[in-house]
Amino acid sequence: MADLAKLVDELSALSVLEAAELVKALEEKWGVSAAAPVAVAAAGAAPVAAAEAAEEKTEFDVVLKDAGPKKIEVIKVIRTLTSLGLVEAKTMAETAGSKVLTAVSKQVAADAKSKLEAAGGVVELA
């Protein structure tokens, strides 16, 4: 029988990548789904599993993919969202992939997306 204390110490020393490799190896060896090995790995390396679970995205970028047919309306919305001048907002509307807002909350990003889409723009949250 294996020394359980030694095994716990060795599992605790694994990096996240090594733990992921261990999960894959155990899944292949035992022929089980990913849920069971993850639970086994999480029991041995609880801080790693807790860190992965806590990584929920809280900051979003509002990216304008295309101004669409109503570019003037999109420019007006950009100006209200960012307080940019007319020239800067026009340049942003004409440049595909421009970040209108950076590192904003989910609610602010969703609000900005809906306003830009209502004006005719194509928007993506990143």
Automatic annotation (TrEMBL):
Which residue positions does the secretion signal occupy? Answer: none
- Species name: Leptolinea tardivitalis
Q: Which GO terms describe its biological process?
A: translation
Matching Gene3D superfamilies, A to Z?
Answer: 3.30.1390.10, Single helix bin
Entry-linked SUPFAM superfamilies: ClpS-like, Ribosomal protein L7/12, oligomerisation (N-terminal) domain
Name the family: Belongs to the bacterial ribosomal protein bL12 family.
Give the protein's recorded name. Answer: Large ribosomal subunit protein bL12
Q: What does this protein do?
A: Forms part of the ribosomal stalk which helps the ribosome interact with GTP-bound translation factors. Is thus essential for accurate translation.
Which parts of the sequence belong to the Large ribosomal subunit protein bL12 C-terminal domain?
Answer: 60-125
What InterPro entries does the entry give?
Ribosomal_bL12, Ribosomal_bL12_C, Ribosomal_bL12_C/ClpS-like, Ribosomal_bL12_oligo, Ribosomal_bL12_oligo_N_sf
Q: Name one Pfam family in it.
A: Ribosomal_L12_N
Q: Which keywords does the record carry?
A: Ribonucleoprotein, Ribosomal protein
